[in-house]
Amino acid sequence: MAGDSLGPTRPSKGGKRREFDTVFLEAVEEGLGQVLGESAARAILLHLERHKGLRRKEISHNTKEFSSCLTEPLGSDAAQLLERVMIKIICSRLQLDYDENPNMEFKFTERVQGLRERFER
Predict the structure, then answer these.
(1) Burial of 94 by CB count in 10 Å (0-12 exposed, 13-18 middle, 19+ buried)?
(2) Alpha-carbon span 11 to 35, nearest angstrom
(3) Residue 24: exposure state from Cβ atoms within 10 A (0-12, 13-18, ≥19)
(4) pTM recorded for the entire structure
(5) Is 7 among the domain residues?
(6) Is residue 22 part of a domain?
(7) Which domain holds residue 37?
């Protein structure tokens, strides 16, 4: 019959992209809050918006800038710790395996892009 479905429908690419962006932002807020506390998390996000012009909803598409903005006040070790926490949260929420190779250099932007591509498949 016309109109009968051949099986479960998959979300559109645009829908999956929006879902990833939402989960990414939640992971940023949650990761900052877990590691630095809620007040510091709000202060960092406000600083990004007011002084760097990086609004919350734009962070997932500007991960390189976001990463460098974290590194400026926190230093590379603390920023990388935060980024790892965020990646773990994203993986957990999207039910993606968290694979970390301690022998490879951690690159936040590349990890986010890889997770986005795996999720949108």
Answers:
(1) middle
(2) 33
(3) buried
(4) 0.83
(5) no
(6) yes
(7) 13-120
Handedness of CA 83, 88, 92, 96 (dihedral sign): positive
Angle made by CA atoms 91, 94, 99, in degrees to the nearest 5: 25
Number of domains, the chain: 1
Q: Using CA atoms, how far apart are residues 33 and 54, in angstroms rounded to an integer?
A: 18
Residue 67 neighbours by CB under 8 Å, 6+ apart: 79, 83, 108, 109
Q: CA 14, CA 20: separation in Å to the nearest integer?
A: 10
CA distances, 22 to each of 2, 11, 18, 65 (Å)? 35, 15, 6, 18
**Is 5 domain-assigned?**
no
Flag whether 8 is in a domain.
Answer: no
User: What are the residue ranges of helices labelled H in the chain?
Assistant: 13-36, 38-52, 63-74, 76-94, 108-120
CATH number at residue 105: 1.10.1200.200
Q: Each residue of 35-90: pLDDT tens digit?
A: 999 999 999 999 999 999 999 999 999 999 999 999 988 999 999 999 999 999 99
Residue 5 structure tokens: 């479905």
